[in-house]
Amino acid sequence: MKVTAEKNEKVANMIFASIYPLYWNRLEKHGKTKEEFHQVIKWFTGYDEKKILSLIENKVTYRTFFEQAKIHPNAHMIKGVTCGYRIEEIDDKFEVYKQCRRLEKLIDELVKGRKMEKILRKEKT
User: Fold this and answer.
1) Angle subtended by helix axes 49-57 and 34-45, to nearest 10
2) Helix orientation angle between 16-29 and 34-45, rounded to the nearest 10 degrees
3) How confident is the model over 84-119, as pLDDT tens digits?
4) Any long-range contacts for 41-45 (C-beta under 8 Å, 24+ apart)?
5) The whole model's pTM is what?
């Protein structure tokens, strides 16, 4: 599927606080802990638990959530299909949408029981 400017804008304007509980409920149903969830978010965005809770409280948009983040330098290694979109084929001009799908992919991997060492990608040495 192709991302459009309208789709990117719609996702950019979504409130992180409304999406967070959806992710958490999904993870909790699969026996995952909040610590694991926050570990994945911290690796990807640089946000610790205090900052995550502050962003939720302030009802920031996904645009703000990703603009303020320090996206991990290995985020480019998050590849594959999620929600019908191949992450590596999403045009860089739709940065918010790409980051949203990358986060989705990390959540998917955690749900499926992938080892944390694999989820938190490292460059091969």
Assistant:
1) 90
2) 130
3) 899 999 999 999 999 999 999 999 999 999 999 999
4) 41/103, 43/72, 43/119, 43/120, 44/69, 44/71, 44/72, 44/75, 44/102, 44/103, 44/106, 45/69, 45/70, 45/71, 45/72
5) 0.93
